[in-house]
Automatic annotation (TrEMBL):
Organism: Symbiobacterium terraclitae
Keyword annotations of the record: Lyase, Pyridoxal phosphate
InterPro entries: Ser/Thr_Dehydratase, Thr_synthase-like, TrpB-like_PALP, TrpB-like_PALP_sf
Pfam families linked to this entry: PALP
UniProt cofactor(s): pyridoxal 5'-phosphate
Tryptophan synthase beta chain-like PALP domain mapped to chain residues: 62-358
Family: Belongs to the threonine synthase family.
PANTHER family named among the record's database cross-references: L-THREONINE DEHYDRATASE CATABOLIC TDCB (PTHR48078:SF6), THREONINE DEHYDRATASE, MITOCHONDRIAL-RELATED (PTHR48078)
Taxonomic placement: Bacteria, Bacillati, Bacillota, Clostridia, Eubacteriales
Name listed for the protein in its UniProt record: Threonine synthase
GO molecular function: threonine synthase activity
UniProt cross-references to CDD domains, sorted A to Z: Thr-synth_1
EC number of this enzyme: 4.2.3.1
Length: 373
C-alpha cells in the first residue's frame, strides 16, 4: 500500500502514481519482511531482501547486480571507521539501489516512458536501468552538471535536457514535462526510497547483524537518510537488531537547509539561498522530504552537520591517498567525522559507518579544474 506522508490517504500498489492527490509524497507501507534464515543461499545483491521492496513478479525485476558493496575498515581523523564503498555500484553511485527498485515497479506497471530531473548521478542511474527495462527516459539536468555524468546519461540512450539555471529550475522544467509523461523522480518515488533501505540491511548483515553506533551520510534531497532510517526501523521492528543507529546527515556549508532547520529546531526545512559548491549532488535548496529527514534525525538521536569547501576537497585528497577515488559530494560525509570526534560524539570504541556515494570519475572536469590542468 502507498500512503500519503501528509493526509494519510492510501493507494493500491497496482496503479502508477508518484504523489498523493493532495500534492504530498508517498511512502511504501508493507508488513512483508525477509527473515535471516531465508537469506541463506541467495545471490549477494540487494534483491536478496526482495520481500521488503514491493515488487510482485520476478520477471519485473531490472537488475545489474547492485548492492552488497564492500565495507572496509579504516580510520579518519584518528577515529576507526567502516567505509561503505557504495560508489562501486554498477553506474558508479548509490543511486542504483533506488533505481533498480523504482524502474522494476515501473516495468511492472507497464509505464512506457518517463521524465526525471537530477544533478547527475540519479539521472545516469535512471537512464541505465530504464534502457535495460525498455523504458524511454528524458533526463533534465542543470547545465553546470559534471561532464562525466551527462556523457553517461547520453551513452545510456536517454534524451538529455540541459537547463540553464539552478537545480530548482531544472525540477520545474521536468515537472512541466511530467504533465504529459510519468514523473519517475528519485526525490518523490516511494520505491526509490524502498531501494535505499537495503543499505541499512546490508550494513547490519555485513557486521553479523550488529547495528553500528553511527552512520554518516550526505543529505540533499533526503532519500538516502530516510532510506537508512526506515531500513534500520524495519530491522528493529522485526527483532533482527536491538537498536536504531544514530544518523549524522552532512551538508555543504554553502547549501545547508537541513542543518539550518536542525540548528533552529524547526519542524520543517525552509528554502535557503545557496552558493556554488563542489558537492553538486547535495545542493538542494529545499528538499521535498524535509520534515521526514528531521524526524529521522530526531528519532535516531542523530545530528546534522556542515562541512566547508576546503574540508570537502581535503577529504577527497585524503581518501585518494588511501586508494579510494570519490567525487566531491561523496567526500562531504567522511569530512564530517572530524566534527563527531571533536564534539565527543564518537570514540575509539564507537562503530562508525561512513557512506561513500559516488565515484570520482563522475567529476573528472571538476578534479581537473581543482588540480589546475
Amino acid at each position: 500500500m502507498l500512503t500519503c506522508s501528509c493526509c494519510n490517504q492510501a493507494y493500491p500498489e497496482t496503479e502508477p502514481r508518484w504523489r498523493c492527490r493532495c500534492g504530498a509524497y508517498l511512502l511504501l507501507q508493507s508488513d512483508r519482511m525477509f527473515t535471516r534464515d531465508a537469506l541463506s543461499g541467495r545471490p549477494l545483491t540487494l534483491w536478496r531482501y526482495r520481500e521488503a521492496l514491493g515488487i510482485e513478479r520476478d520477471d519485473s525485476i531490472v537488475s545489474l547486480g547492485e548492492g552488497f558493496t564492500p565495507l572496509v575498515a579504516d580510520a579518519l581523523f584518528g577515529q576507526p571507521v567502516l567505509l561503505k564503498l557504495d560508489q562501486l555500484n554498477p553506474t558508479g553511485s548509490f543511486k542504483d539501489r533506488g533505481s533498480t527498485v523504482m524502474i522494476s515497479k515501473l516495468k511492472e506497471w507497464g509505464v512506457p516512458e518517463i521524465v526525471e530531473d537530477s544533478s547527475g548521478n540519479a539521472g545516469a542511474s535512471v537512464a541505465a536501468y530504464a534502457r535495460r527495462a525498455g523504458i524511454a527516459a528524458r533526463i533534465f539536468v542543470p547545465a553546470s552538471t559534471s561532464a562525466g555524468k551527462t556523457a553517461q546519461i547520453r551513452m545510456h540512450g536517454a534524451d538529455l535536457v540541459r537547463v540553464d539555471g539552478s537545480r530548482e529550475e531544472t525540477t520545474r522544467a521536468a515537472l512541466a514535462a511530467a504533465s504529459q509523461t510519468f514523473y519517475a523522480s528519485h526525490n518523490w518515488s516511494p520505491y526509490f526510497v524502498a531501494g535505499l533501505k537495503t543499505l541499512a540491511y546490508e550494513i547490519c548483515e555485513q557486521q553479523d547483524w550488529q547495528a553500528p553506533d553511527w552512520v554518516v551520510a550526505p543529505v540533499g534531497g533526503g532519500s538516502l537518510v530516510l532510506g537508512l532510517y526506515l531500513g534500520f526501523a524495519d530491522l528493529v521492528r522485526a527483532g533482527i537488531i536491538a537498536r536504531m543507529p544514530r544518523i549524522a546527515a552532512v551538508q555543504a556549508a554553502v547549501c545547508a537547509p537541513v542543518y539550518e532547520a536542525w540548528r533552529q529546531r524547526l519542524h520543517e526545512v525552509p528554502e535557503v539561498d545557496k552558493r556554488e559548491t563542489a558537492a553538486e549532488g547535495i545542493a538542494i535548496a529545499r528538499p521535498v522530504k524535509g520534515e521526514s529527514i528531521l524526524k529521522a534525525l530526531c528519532e535516531s538521536g542523530g545530528v546534522a552537520l556542515t562541512v566547508s569547501e576546503e574540508e570537502i576537497w581535503a577529504t577527497a585528497h585524503l581518501l585518494a591517498e588511501k586508494g579510494i577515488y570519490v567525487e566531491p559530494t561523496s567526500a562531504a560525509a567522511p569530512a564530517a567525522v572530524r566534527q563527531l570526534v571533536e564534539q565527543g560524539l564518537v570514540g575509539t570504541g564507537s562503530r562508525v559507518v561512513v557512506e561513500l556515494t559516488g565515484m570520482g570519475l563522475k567529476a573528472t572536469d571538476k578534479f581537473l579544474a581543482h588540480l589546475g590542468g
